[in-house]
Structure formats: structure tokens, C-alpha cells
Amino acid sequence: MTVRFVRPVSSSAYLAKKMAWSSLLLLLMAFAAHRFGPLTTPSFLAVVILCAVLGSLSIPLALHGLVQLWTTGAQGGIASARAIILALPAIALFAVGMYLSETRPALFDVTTDIADPPAWQKQPVADQLWLSQPTFVSPASRELQEETYPGITSRRYEGALDRVYDAVIKVAAANRIKFDKDKLAKGQSQKAKPAPSRTPQSGVGANGAASSASNPAVNPPATDAAPPVPDVVPIPLPRPSPALASLLPQAQAKGDLSLQGSMRTFILGLPFDVVIRLREEEQTVLVDMRVASRYGSHDLGLSAGIAQSYLRALDAELLGIAPE
């Protein structure tokens, strides 16, 4: 009688493979919808947690399939190995987030000027859903930032305001910071109003020469009369760059020029709000920056990284006029 060996099948190994595939596919779809689509950050983080849970549950099942392969020769060894590999991205992403939340200070707003941070032109508002974010930054948070990130300080550059402004715009574009176009368009639409002409007297019209010619009794001709003085005398003024000239009407009374915009991180597309303030003081320009996470009360240290990267690039761009 022939004995035929029937190899058992590890159901846990194949179940682990299905769960790991589901975790990876769901993570990829959430990543694409958040980076390029309408998925908000709180929803994306919730999906990441769900994917990490699915991936974590698939790991014990995959290990059980490997044990069955070793002890009874059950089928499913390859499925178990694939399940472990497919579950790693979601687990790794969640693990990195937890590590940063434990090792980085609990901040969501950093600035170069702790005493007088640049003010928002329009307060960023976002639906936090299941996340929470304080409505204001406490003095304790500012002190924590000063202790943790001492390199985030104001920058003072020697040079004209328009030159520093051009460098600020150039470095912002290189760092994927996009300023609000509606504010720029509003500034460009504000033009200086023409000076009102003097009220004509004794029948003299707006065009004095034409009126005099038509009414010689009012203005008799004179051979030795001095030339007429124009109503409006142009005053020569320095001409800044066109972009800066459009924003000068929005400058504050004390000479500040604020630019507000936003940016997204390169990989995950996490949104951050940015405001840059330029303050002209005698022959120098003081540049301050403020970066805030749009969602949550912990930015995982990304706000400080954005500010430090921008300030280093600005120092390199203005090295020729920056003080030593």
C-alpha cells in the first residue's frame, strides 16, 4: 500500500499576507490622496494608524506560519516572508512618528523673535477633527524653543530693502514656500491716486492755456510775464523693484513688511504656515520668520527644520551683504 504524504497548509501565513497587502495598499492610497488630493492631515494620520495596526497584527500570524513550516512543513513560508516585508512600511512610518514625538519638544509654532513674533496677516484656521491645537502659544513653549533650538534667531543684513526682499522671495521659492497670491494681487492693484487739480478761478478751465486764449479779458497777454508754475510738481523718489513697490502700501506704520504663505513637506505633504517679516532699520534690514504646523499640537520638530533650512539658505544668498 502506497503512503501518500499530504502537506498541510498554514492558514495563518496566507491570512497574514492578505492583511499586509491591505495595509500597504491602503497606505499608498492615503499617501496619494493626502499628497496630491483632498485628504486632510488628520484623516491621513488616522489611516496611517489603521495601517500600522493591520501590519502589526499580520506579523504574529506570519511568524506562526514560519513556525508551522519548521515543525510540520506546512505550506506558507513564502507567504509569511512576504507578509513581513509588506507590513514594514506602515509599521516603520508609525514608529518614526512615535520616536519623533518622544524625542522632539512638544511645539507646533517656532519663531526667530520670541519677544515679538511676526503676526499673521490672516490667522490660519483648519478643522482639527480628532486632533487638537492650542489657540495661542504659551510663554513656556517659547522658552522651550529657545532652549532646544538656539540657532533659530533673527537675521540682520546690510543692504537696501528691495535687495533683501528679492533674496527672501528667491529663497522661499527654492524651499517650496508659496506666498498667498491674493495678497500679492491686492498689493499690486493699489496704485497712487493722482493729485487733485486746483479749482479754476474767474472762468479759467482745467487747461489754463486754452482758457486764456479764449478769454483774453480775464488774462490779458503780457510780454514780460514769468512762465506759469505747474499745479503738480513731480518729486523724484527711489524706485524699488516692481514686486516690492506693490507691497509697500501694506507695510505697517513702524516700517514692517510681512509676507505670509504656506508650504508642504516634500514626501508626506504635511502643511505648514509661514510668515516672514522684513523691518528696515537705518542701513540694515532685520528678517524674522515664523513657522507653524497647521494641524496638531506637536510638529515632530519639522517646523524648526523648515526655519533652519530657510535661514541657512538666506544667509548663503545674502552672504555678500550680510555682516560677518
Automatic annotation (TrEMBL):
Residues 203-226 have a biased composition (Low complexity). Pfam families: DUF1499. Residues 183-232 are annotated as: Disordered. The chain crosses the membrane at residues 42-67, 79-100. This is DUF1499 domain-containing protein. InterPro entries: DUF1499. Keywords: Membrane, Transmembrane, Transmembrane helix.
